[in-house]
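Appendix C reproduces, verbatim, an entry submitted by the partner laboratory led by Prof. M.T., so that reviewers can inspect both the input and the predicted structure.
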Amino acid sequence: MTQAHTFSDIQQTLTQATERATDLANAFKAKPHLGAQAASPNQTSTKAATQFASGASSKELADTVTDVMTDALTKTAPQTSNKAVNKTSNEALTATDVTSKNLTKAANASSLFAKPQAPQIIALHALVNHLAEAMFVTDETGFIQLINPEAAKLFGMPKDKLVGKKLTDFLSTNFVEEYQHLFDAWGKTDETELSHGPKEVLLKPTNGLTLEVDLSLSCLPVDENKSHALFVGVMHNLSSHKAEYKELRRLARTDCLTQLANRHAFDEVLQRSWNECVNHGQPLSLVIIDVDYFKLFNDDHGHVQGDECLRRIAQVIQSALPSRHCLAARYGGEEFALVLPGCNAHTAQATAARIQQQINRLSFTPQGLDASVRISVSQGIACERTGQFRTPTALLCAADTALYRAKTDGRDRINLSQ
């Protein structure tokens, strides 16, 4: 496929060559004994452009320009000597030599795809167009030369409109400079064992959204002299995989009954919060909550009602957290735990009191139980502030001991570890 900007260069070069031919022909016209008519620029460029479109070589294009001019001069000036005609033709050929060189350089990459002849180019066409993976091919400067439907979907444009576009135009700003420097560096080396990635980048499709993709680029020499190279790009859409991973990670850290964090997440957050608070001199409070007489509730009303009771308690606990940095977890059975980084003992006690009041006011009539049914919790608090606890495990043990005292003191109480 010929790129628009490449074809424009070719037309301009052809026009310059035919203008030179016209000037030479007009020189003959100026001499009365020649009576020559200039070769038409349109005639010359039209025939040459037709040959280019059919895949003619640059030498054939040069010969075409020369033949048209020579034929015009010979027909319109029969008295002109062969020597004069040959001189004019030679001057025209010199002008078209420049044309042929420019044509070769301009049409090199695009002609590979406009009319593929080499087996490796034909194979590349078949591979790119029929592969289920998102795949594209760029030239040495990063302009897309070939792209398959799967890759076009990620770019958000029809594939025929993507040819001639620059890859970096579709990358997030954070990656444009990196890949532009990459192509610039590759254009200055004769090495062919070049590759980059796979690397996670942000793609900017034309729909205005952003996609997380895995992008890899690999060099592909296209001739025996290794004077030209193409770069094959392969992309994988990571958006769905990332979303799935995020959901799986959430499920692995979530208690399925209460939707609070599970014990694994609690242990992880406690350790991380301990490290951060101790290193920065911030307080860290821990609250352990136990539902009073929950076994009796299960025995009287059944485990289905018991599960619903735990879910409602969990909602109260979650809504009472003083900060989004805090964590509420199901510690085990009918026990819950709070990790309160940056919260001192006073804040922890206020949070516990709020939880106690809201749970005491819970009504279970929406569950079909009698209005007299009530539930309460006992809570133990420990706070690390001045280095009294050496490890997060020691802090946890202190909160657990405070909880035990709250239960032995009559339940429905809050006890602070001293």
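The mean pLDDT is 79. Additional entries are available on request from the coordinating office.
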